[in-house]
Structures are given as C-alpha cells and as structure tokens.
Amino acid sequence: MLAIFKKELRQYFITPIGYVYIAVYLGVSGFTFSMFTVQPGSNGSDAQVNIYFTVLMFIFSVLIPLLTMRIFADERKMKTEELLMTAPVSINSMVAAKFLAAYVMFASTFLFSLFDYYVLFKYGKPQPGVLFGYAVGILLLGGAFVAIGVFVSSLTENQITAAVGTMAILLLMLSVNFFNSYIDITWIRTVLNWISIYSRFGNFTYGVFDFTALLYYASIMFVFLFLTVRVYERRRWE
Question: What is the CB neighbour count within 10 angstroms for residue 38?
C-alpha cells in the first residue's frame, strides 16, 4: 500500500498535473480571498469569509477532478491495471492508497493557503472559531470530493471523461440546495436538503463542530470508495 501511495504522490510531480493544480488553486484562491476579505470596502468580517468559502467550494468542484481524473483512468489506458490487480496487495489497500495520495495533495495545498489568514487576522475582524470550523468543513468536503473523483476515474480510461463526469456530479451535489426555493413539495425539498453537500457545511460556518455532518461526509467517502473496490473486484474475475 505504501509503495502505491508513494508512486501516486510522485506521479503528480513528474507530470504537469500537480504543478497545474497547485498554481491554479493558489492563484484563484488568493484572488478570491483578496476580493472578499481584504479589498477596500471589505472588513474581513465573518460575512465576507462566508462568501469566500462558498466560492472556494465551487473552485474545488472544478479543480479536484484534475487530481483524480488519471488515478485509475490512466492505469486502464496504459494497460497497467492488470499489474495492480495481481500485485501482493489487496484491492482495498490499492484504492485507499490512491485515494490518500490525491487527498494529501488536496489537503496540503489547502493548508498551505491558510497562511492568507494572517492578513485577515491582522487587518480584519474574524472569529477564530469560525475560521477553524470552515477549515475543518473544507477538509471533510474535500475528502468526499476526492472519493467521488476516484470512483468516476475507475469507470473509464479517458481522463477528460473522468474529469468532466466528476465535475458534473460535484456541481450537482453542491447546487441541489439552491433548487429548494423553487420547489413546493415538502418531501422533495427534504430529500434534496439531505443529499446536499452544501447544506451540510452550514454549521461549520458558525464554528460549530457538527457530528452529523462529519458522519455524512465520512459516509460519502466510504460509499464511493466501496463502489470503486467493487468495480475492481468485478474486473479481477472477468
């Protein structure tokens, strides 16, 4: 498992994907942070921080597929997945190693960007507990996004298809909450609110650690990684 994890992590830096992800994320995140928290007219209050993190969620829905699109799709295209399935490691460990490599890339880049908050604390008026809640929520949200991307990548050998498919799913899961105001049927609104990734993020914005949200994001990770394992278990016996 460790060998696969190291290989996947190294792969991000021997191809342009890792550098493109880091550069684009830090650039777009820094610009968005500046626009909503430190520009003239902004006071770095929790209201502006809320807008910033909302935008950040949609940024990740576009950028995280760049990290996950090649994880399994490239193995199928290069005809190397047979080597993975016959390696002395379980399919569970193989999937976990690939997931962790992508998640480490996501989490380390996000944590590095937290240095921006030094400016916010120096010139603005944020509440430390609220910022901590946002950070925890983003790390959980990112894990769910990465798990979904890993699953979609296991379904195709085309990296572009994997990226576009993942983006479509993530944007849909983020957007369903916004449809509620246009729906009058209570049970449909309840279902949409339950599956909405965005609505689960709400309590973190108040600095409240929401155990049900933690369970929700962990469940998404488990379900999509389990489905990925099932995909490869089926392929092993074909």
Answer: 17
| DSSP per-residue codes, 85-98 | HHSSS-HHHHHHHH
Q: Are 4 and 89 in contact (CB under 8 A)?
A: yes
Each residue's pLDDT tens digit, 154-164: 998 899 999 99
What is the DSSP secondary structure assignment for residue 124, as one 8-state letter?
Answer: S
- The structure tokens listed for 157 are 């050998």
The Cα–Cα gap between 204 and 217 comes to: 13
* Residue predicted with more confidence, 204 or 110: 110
Q: What is the pLDDT of residues 74-104, one digit of tens each?
A: 888 887 777 777 777 888 888 999 999 999 9
With b for 16 or more beta-carbon neighbours within 10 A and e for fewer, the 62-87 pattern comes to bbbbbbbbbbbbbbbeeeebeebbee
